[in-house]
Amino acid sequence: EKIANASIITMLRDPKDRFLSFYYYLREKFAAGENSRRSRLANRYDLDEFVYLMDDPDLVDDLLNSVTWQLAYGTRQLERLSFRMEATKSDDDLLNAAIANLNRCALVGFQDGYSDFANKFEQLYSIPLTIRRENVTKSRLSVTDVSARTLRKIDDWVYLDSEVYRYALRVFRIK
Prior knowledge:
Strand content: under 5%
Distance between the termini: 37 Å
Number of helices: 9
Helix content: 55-70%
Strand order of the largest sheet: 1-2
Largest sheet: 2 strands, parallel
Order of helices and strands: EHHHHHHHEHH
Number of strands: 2
């Protein structure tokens, strides 16, 4: 059922930083006793090796242009598969769908600009916004600490997410 006057709000994060955070989060989950396939992979491979595991379906769901897919079609694998099965569909079509949906958002924020996001949210909805930091990785590399070779490989995972992020920074960053 459609909700009248609903607002869609999203917060974006630098795609490379998101990738690194997810990798280190999986490692921490493994150390804490989680035994999922994803956490075992993150524990088994150091970052420089992990970035080459692009044939693993569990990792693809969470890391391969996942923000672009979520914005364009949601999180379900069936939608991704249907999209890819259409011979006329391309990465440009996926990117355009994600950007079109992003443009429909009432508010787009950025993780590194949370206070601006919270202020704008309160202006729009007259509700103070407080977000708790959850799943914060205790120990991890930052993007600036990663080798150029590994960053190039991370780009292979997030190339469309990076396009969406750059677009969003140009259009939605509060100045």
